[in-house]
Structure formats: structure tokens, C-alpha cells
Write a structure and sequence with these properties.
Layout lengths: L1 H9 L4 E7 L2 E12 L5 E8 L8 H17 L3 E6 L4 H10 L2 E12 L2 E11 L7 H12 L9
Parallel strand pairs: 3-4
Antiparallel strand pairs: 1-2, 2-3, 4-6, 5-6
Helix pairs in contact: 2-3
Length: about 150
Amino acid sequence: MVRHLRSEAHAGRMLPFVIEYHGRLVGQLTVAGITWGSMCSGHVGYWVDEAVAGRGVMPTGVALAVDHCFRTVGLHRVEVCIRPENAPSRRVVEKLGFREEGLRPRYLHIDGAWRDHLVFALTAEEVPEGLLRRWHRSRNRSTPNAGNAGN
């Protein structure tokens, strides 16, 4: 698997990341399916250890990766496709303000069957200030007495 990730990364088709929390590996995030030319797009996939779920680890990781894709790599669009029953993953994109675009029936073959996925997306124009900054700003508005924490 590591060999495949490195090969795809060197070819410019993937950006694999690991997620650490307090010095411990707790997840992975991959920007894959990177397409150049007139599309300049990729899709994000992720997982996180349930022991750290709900602490903002994955929204922070996704926001950082999306900002890197838009500002450094030069992508224009990023998608996240999530199984409809995966409420925790859906919550990540909802927190970050991804736009829901619709359902892709029988999109990926997982656990022995073709599974439906909901598509969420963002374009660079939707987050000119950066996704991490927008997310921190929205968290501060929803948390009383948050001040400038996290900015």
C-alpha cells in the first residue's frame, strides 16, 4: 500500500497524508484522483481512530489538505464522496461547509457490493480566505467566549 501511495504521489495523481494527534498516528487522509488540465480536481478520502473522533481532528486535517490543494498545488475543485449512512463523515463536511451536490448510485464497490455515495464539493472561489480560517471563524461564532482561540 505504501509503495502504491508513493508511486501515485510521485506521478502527481495523489497526496497521501497521515494524521497525528499528540504524537500518535490516529488517521489518514488522501487526496486522490487528481486530474489536471481543464479540470484541476481531486477527491478526498479519510478515516480517523474513533478514540479521537469529535475533537476536531478530521475537520482540521481536511481543511488543511484542501487549503494546500487550492493554494499550493493549484487545484480548483475538491470532492468528498460519503456513504449516506456514514453520519460521522458527513458531519465533517457539514462542519466545513462543503456543498452537497447529490447522490451517486452504486458509486464504489465496498464490502462486496456497489454502494451509493453522497457527493460534497468545494471550489477555490468558495473559500478565498482558506477553509481552515473559515472553519475556525464559524467555530468561534458558535462558541460563547471563544475570543480568538484557534485563529
